[in-house]
Design goal:
Elements: H1 3-22, E1 30-32, E2 35-37, E3 42-49, E4 57-63, E5 72-76, E6 81-96, E7 99-112, E8 123-132, E9 139-142, E10 144-149, E11 154-157, E12 174-178, E13 198-200, E14 204-206, E15 214-216, H2 222-257
Parallel strand pairs: 2-12
Antiparallel strand pairs: 1-3, 3-8, 4-7, 4-10, 5-8, 5-13, 6-7, 6-14, 8-15, 9-12, 10-11
Helix pairs in contact: 1-2
Length: 258
């Protein structure tokens, strides 16, 4: 193999590696924001993408941690979806500013009203709740989630990530609780409980209409644009190095043959 051919092969391998490294990781069911203040009320968004090309997401079951219970939630209405809130008796009642609470949220199940409102391939939906009070001690809360597809397959996002280890294949959405600031003026902290767009947790609820809050992955955020610009910059840089190496090799070859 000539020096020129070897140089071209190295350039091609480098470009392939850069592109593969820059591609986004497979999307997971996740919760945002990733952190909240312990003891606060906060708004949480569970983002659920449909990763399959041949099926839609028809049900999302989010299970709340039983060892660090949350007393109450408000749920934002999603047109075309119904929800069910389940509660469980607490082993240790929670004392709040409003009194003692003996039950906590154990599970919220969202179900698409029809195939038209299911989360289709290349789309995601956001399931928004306001929850609180959160546990008063810093730590991690895992919200294990079950994603049901239209053909009956259930993907279990229940694996707990371990410090110092690679991310598991199906990680559970995790919220990290941080200590409250000593100069915080708000005893609850976090986000206020929404009232205009939320539905009280009376057990079940039904969305209206057929539109749902979905978006194409190709246009979902500016992150994709930034990533694309970064990839383009890397490719241009490596291409420049490759052409420089090619010219150098060609020059040397001409020098040895003259």
């Amino acid at each position: 193999m000539s020096r020129t051919t070897r140089g071209a092969a190295v350039l091609g391998a480098a470009l392939t590696g850069v592109i593969a490294f820059a591609l986004p990781a497979s999307a997971h069911v996740s919760v945002a924001p990733p952190t909240a203040v312990a003891g606060a009320y906060t708004t949480l968004t569970f983002q659920v993408p449909t990763e399959r090309d041949d099926a839609s997401t028809t049900k999302v079951d989010v299970q709340f941690p039983s060892d660090a219970p949350i007393a109450s939630v408000l749920i934002k209405n999603i047109p075309g979806w119904t929800y069910e809130v389940k509660k469980a008796k607490l082993a240790k009642p929670i004392t709040t500013d409003d009194g003692t609470i003996s039950e906590g949220i154990s599970e919220i199940i969202w179900t698409a009203s029809s195939g038209d409102t299911a989360i289709k391939s290349g789309e995601f939906a956001q399931f928004v709740i306001s929850a609180g009070p959160l546990p008063d001690k810093p730590g991690a809360l895992a919200f294990k989630a079950l994603q049901t597809y239209s053909d009956g397959q259930i993907v279990r996002w229940i694996d707990i990530a371990q410090p110092g280890q690679a991310e598991p294949e199906h990680p559970a959405p995790t919220l990290t609780l941080t200590a409250a600031s000593t100069d915080s003026a708000d005893a609850h902290g976090g986000s206020a409980m929404p009232t205009a767009t939320a539905t009280e947790t009376s057990g079940t609820g039904t969305g209206s209409g057929t539109a749902m809050q979905t978006a194409s992955r190709s246009t979902d955020s500016s992150d994709g644009t930034a990533r694309a610009l970064g990839i383009a910059g890397l490719i241009v840089g490596i291409a420049g190095l490759g052409f420089g190496a090619f010219a150098l090799l060609a020059g040397r070859r001409r020098g040895t043959t003259s």
